[in-house]
Write a structure and sequence with these properties.
The complex is a heterodimer of chains A (340) and B (548).
Chain A: H1 2-15, E1 26-31, H2 39-49, E2 52-57, H3 60-70, E3 78-81, H4 84-92, E4 96-97, H5 102-107, E5 120-126, E6 129-132, E7 156-157, H6 164-177, H7 179-191, H8 201-210, E8 215-217, H9 220-227, H10 232-239, E9 241-244, E10 255-263, H11 269-278, H12 282-292, E11 295-296, H13 305-310, H14 321-336
Parallel strand pairs in A: 1-2, 1-3, 7-8
Antiparallel strand pairs in A: 3-10, 4-10, 5-10, 5-11, 6-8, 6-9
Chain B: H1 2-29, H2 38-45, H3 47-78, E1 79-80, H4 84-90, H5 99-110, H6 115-124, H7 139-164, H8 167-175, H9 180-209, H10 212-217, H11 222-232, H12 236-261, E2 279-280, H13 283-319, H14 323-355, H15 359-369, H16 376-402, H17 414-438, H18 442-450, H19 455-466, H20 468-484, H21 487-492, H22 500-509, H23 513-541
Parallel strand pairs in B: 1-2
Helix pairs in contact in B: 1-14, 1-15, 1-16, 1-17, 3-4, 3-7, 3-9, 3-11, 3-13, 4-13, 5-7, 5-13, 7-9, 8-9, 9-12, 9-17, 11-12, 13-23, 14-17, 14-20, 14-23, 16-17, 17-20, 18-19, 20-23, 22-23
Classes of the chains: A alpha/beta (340), B mainly alpha (548).
Family (chain A): Belongs to the bacterial solute-binding protein 1 family.
Keywords (chain A): Iron, Metal-binding, Signal
Protein name (chain A): Fe(3+) ABC transporter substrate-binding protein
């Protein structure tokens, strides 16, 4: 059983693997933003401040679970998610702490952060309607609510209700119109689906371009990602559709944020705060726009060229905490409406 | 006296068995919590669909893996036809491709907007709705994808069984007037049944645990339901309860199979295990044999691997960065360690089961083995809970008595990760080792003991040399599985530590499929090398004339 001893020994060695550099300042980050969409910014931060950033990426729910199990012993100082609902959840399971920062309060508009400063939006993600040029004229479109109209029967593509962006969209509709009305809307909307929901946001745009449906609901940065992908098929598909910003006459187009909060267990509070503030400075904000076609939260930050083409739009001013509050209701409502 | 010795050791075995079963028990433990109002919602709207879709999926995969696995195993082990040598190991290759990756590649190829359909439309001037084409993103598509990557389990087990079958049994069947086909149906197949069932149960457990494929294809199953309940409804208790329900399915399946076997034993009583000649096939039969063994390799490996290669080449400049070496090293290192650890525990537990057979040992091994059917994320939570508890208890104790805070000793370390892999893939190694041990006659143990060997001496000096092939198979299976593993890696890994699977997932979940090509291809390549090496070693380790 030598082998077993060796195995046990190497296991023990591994458990001691994480080493902590004593003299260098550090900050530890759990991020639901993918590595490629955050690491370059973190490297820049390290360059400027000489604070090392340690990173674990993963799905927000899994990171949240890990954070809450690790409790006050967690090494994580910060949590980044790609939607406000999860930040709301993190706050409600008591793993975040309030951060008092003049910089953050000034940079992040009030509806894009927690009323008690437990979390702050970093970048805005809009979920408009895409229509196939030549098949649909923009004047036929108006609001999300109008998408249950019979004239769209068999013409709508949207992904599964398991996706957080759809859950947030429906949560915002519940906030605007109430649960009962939204459920009736969802029933009509589901009847208009061209195909059972499947694939991601890009797939909906591709399906529209291929003629399966005439309109698709998707996040703008996926559309931007297709246009800049370097893959001619994707570029061609994206060029066949155009953006329509819904609900411009009333509350505005549904938006969500990727955002950040400081953990309750944070040991490197100062460094963590520095990183939070760094992520909303003009340069970082322009980076989200440039690299991933996300809208800056900072007023006046530079937009990417692509986004300038899409034009200004009115965004829903609903405080994003509400998305988290309504999330479970939204999911159940979609289940009942047969939105799979 | 030696009974006392076993007595002491059995304690350890039970302890290890329980330790391995702990994460599954943690998940099962949630059943004891009260059911909340979300259950009514699940019951009213979704549960029926979860159950029926999961059953259809299992049924479809059963048909798929059995037909592909058994036919190819029988042909390559008993017949001679062009390409047999090459095919006999290439048939294992699909094992190296993660199910969700094959789903992505086939969607890229066969989707409405993909090259195949676009070309057809261009040639025939069709438009959407004017022609019929199988929809890849459907439950049928999911069955096809999972069957293509999971049939190697059945193939591997069945082939080993066919190769080890004593030729005298088949000869006896021929002298009794059976044709070769009848001999296969009446003798070889029933004899190979335990091995085939082992392969099938691995395939089915992996099917039940699959999340990536069904989620991408928009098929609602138990697994997607578990995540929907956890993530969407923010109800991890109901999610764990759903997972327990899933486990009870698995338990019933296992019990049914055990019951149907009951007292039957499958070790050969003859020692004359030399192989007869392979039937040499010529003409059409040879053509059909080559074709039916090539198809699974073409569809399960060549097509998806080519698509990955194509994606890799189109994105090579920005995906092959310097950290690619680190990713590969991390993946291979983790997979190798986990394989050794899992197989060691499997040997220990399997042997203990043979030696002691107490209900306690059997029970904990059975529970631990079910980890394979649980979605990786759920098992990861099952791993995190006890580790976090240990960490907090130690920390509290140290703080109280010595004023030192130890922080997190186990959580978020590679130890936690290896532990999770071991639990999750223990089933794979135990099934393989069990199959190997089952074929060794108990009289061998008795002979060894009567000649003065200790129980471990018997394992080391008698069993291990006999079942070297089996052990290597178990190592290979766990190695490849860990390479592909994603959810547990994602949630348990330490800071600044990534693997190929993590990188592939990050690209794919950002809907950058082409960028996911390079890391996926690397997973496949890292998996192929041991597949080839080990299939040679396994062949060599086979007794007598069975060597390839």
């Amino acid at each position: 059983m030598k082998l077993l001893k060796v195995a046990l020994f190497s296991g023990l060695m591994l458990s001691m693997a994480p080493s902590y550099a004593a003299d260098q300042e550090e900050v530890n980050l759990y991020s639901a933003r993918k590595e490629q969409l955050i690491k370059p910014l973190l490297d820049k931060f390290t360059e400027q401040t000489n604070i090392k950033v340690n990173l674990v990426t993963g799905s927000a729910d899994a990171l949240l679970k890990r954070l809450s199990l690790e409790g006050d012993k967690s090494l994580a100082d910060l949590l980044i998610t790609t939607d406000a609902g999860r930040l709301y959840r993190a706050k409600s399971v008591d793993v975040l702490q309030s951060v008092d920062s003049e910089v953050l309060n000034k940079a992040v508009p009030e509806h894009l952060r927690d009323p008690e400063s437990y979390w702050f939006g970093l970048s805005v993600r809009a979920r408009p309607i895409f229509y196939v040029k030549g098949k649909v004229v923009p004047s036929e479109l108006s609001t999300y609510e109008a998408l249950d109209d019979e004239k769209w029967a068999g013409r709508v593509c949207i992904r599964s209700s398991g996706n957080i962006y759809n859950q947030s969209l429906v949560a915002s509709l519940i906030a605007a119109n109430g649960a009962e009305k939204t459920e009736a809307w969802a029933e009509g909307f589901v009847k208009n689906f061209a195909q059972p929901p499947k694939g991601g946001d890009r797939d909906q745009i591709k399906a529209a371009a291929a003629g399966i449906c005439d309109i698709a609901v998707a996040n703008t940065y996926y559309y931007g990602g297709m246009l800049t992908s370097g893959d001619q098929d994707q570029i061609d598909a994206a060029n066949k559709v155009a953006i329509f910003w819904p609900n411009q006459e009333d509350r505005g187009t549904h938006v969500n944020v990727s955002g950040i909060g400081m953990t309750k267990a944070a040991k490197n509070v100062d460094q963590a705060k520095q990183l939070m503030e760094f992520l909303v400075n003009a340069e970082s904000q322009a980076w989200y726009a440039e690299v991933n076609s996300e809208f800056p939260v900072l007023e006046g930050a530079k937009w990417g060229d692509l986004m300038k083409e899409w034009g200004e739009f009115k965004a829903d001013q609903l405080n994003l905490s509400v998305l988290g509050e309504n999330n479970a209701d939204a999911v159940k409502l979609m289940d009942r409406a047969g939105w799979r | 006296m030696h009974n006392g010795l076993i007595g002491i050791r059995s304690w350890w075995v039970v302890l290890i068995g329980l330790l391995m079963a702990l994460p599954v028990l943690v998940v099962l433990g949630f059943v004891l919590q009260p059911f909340n109002q979300n259950w009514q919602h699940l019951y009213d709207n979704l549960l029926g669909e979860y159950i029926s879709n999961s059953l259809i999926l299992m049924l479809g995969v059963t048909v798929g893996v059995l037909s592909m696995g058994i036919i190819t195993a029988w042909l390559t082990s008993t017949c001679e036809f062009p390409g047999r040598r090459l095919l006999s190991w290439s048939l294992l290759l699909p094992l190296a491709i993660p199910a969700y990756i094959i789903a992505y590649t086939y969607t890229g190829v066969l989707d409405f907007a993909g090259p195949v359909q676009s070309q057809l439309r261009e040639w025939f001037g069709w438009r959407y709705g004017q022609y019929w084409f199988p929809e890849i993103r459907s439950i049928g598509g999911a069955v096809a994808m999972l069957s293509l990557v999971l049939y190697p389990y059945v193939y591997m087990m069945a082939r080993a069984a066919f190769l080890e079958q004593s030729v005298s049994v088949l000869e006896a069947s021929r002298t009794l007037g059976n044709t070769p086909f009848q001999g296969f149906m009446r003798v070889a197949l029933p004899l190979a049944r335990p091995a085939i069932i082992t392969g099938l149960s691995l395939a089915l457990m992996e099917t039940l645990a699959d999340y990536g494929t069904v989620q991408y294809f928009g098929v609602t199953t138990f697994t997607t339901g578990i995540f929907r309940t956890w993530y969407g409804l923010d109800d991890s208790v109901s999610a764990a309860q759903l997972a327990s329900l899933l486990l009870s399915f698995v338990a019933i399946l296992i019990l049914l199979e055990r019951y149907s076997r009951r007292k039957a034993r499958f070790h050969s009583t003859s020692n004359k295990e030399q192989r007869g000649q392979r039937y040499t096939l010529k003409g059409w039969p040879a053509f059909w044999a080559t074709l039916s063994c090539s198809l699974p390799v073409i569809f399960g490996f060549l097509i998806p691997a080519s698509q990955l290669l194509y994606w890799t080449l189109t994105t090579a400049q920005h995906t092959f960065t310097s950290d690619f070496v680190v990713l590969t090293t991390n993946s291979v290192m983790l997979a190798a360690i986990a394989a050794v650890v899992a197989v060691c525990f499997a040997l220990l537990l399997s042997y203990a089961k043979r030696l002691l057979g107490t209900p306690m040992v059997k029970g904990s091994v059975a529970v631990a083995s079910m980890g394979y059917a649980v979605p990786g994320t759920v098992i990861a939570v099952g791993v995190m809970l006890p580790l976090a508890w240990i960490d907090h208890t130690i920390d509290q104790w140290l703080t109280e008595y010595f004023g030192i805070s130890s922080g997190l000793l186990l959580s978020g370390t590679l130890f936690a990760l290896i532990f999770a892999y071991t639990v999750r893939f223990l089933s794979v190694s135990i099934q393989a080792v069990d199959a190997g041990l089952g074929k060794i006659k108990p009289s061998m143990d008795d002979a060894g003991r009567s000649l003065g060997l200790s129980p471990f001496g018997v394992l080391r000096k008698i069993h291990l040399p006999i079942m070297k092939g089996t052990v290597l198979t178990a190592l290979l299976l766990v190695f490849v599985d860990v390479l592909k593993e994603l959810p547990a890696t994602l949630i348990l890994r330490p800071f600044n530590f990534n693997t190929l699977a993590v990188r592939a997932y990050e690209m794919a979940s950002d809907e950058r499929l082409a960028d996911a090509g390079a890391p996926s291809l690397m997973i496949v390549m890292a998996g192929i090398i041991p597949v080839i090496l080990l299939s040679k070693a396994i062949a060599k380790a086979r007794p007598r004339g069975a060597a390839e």
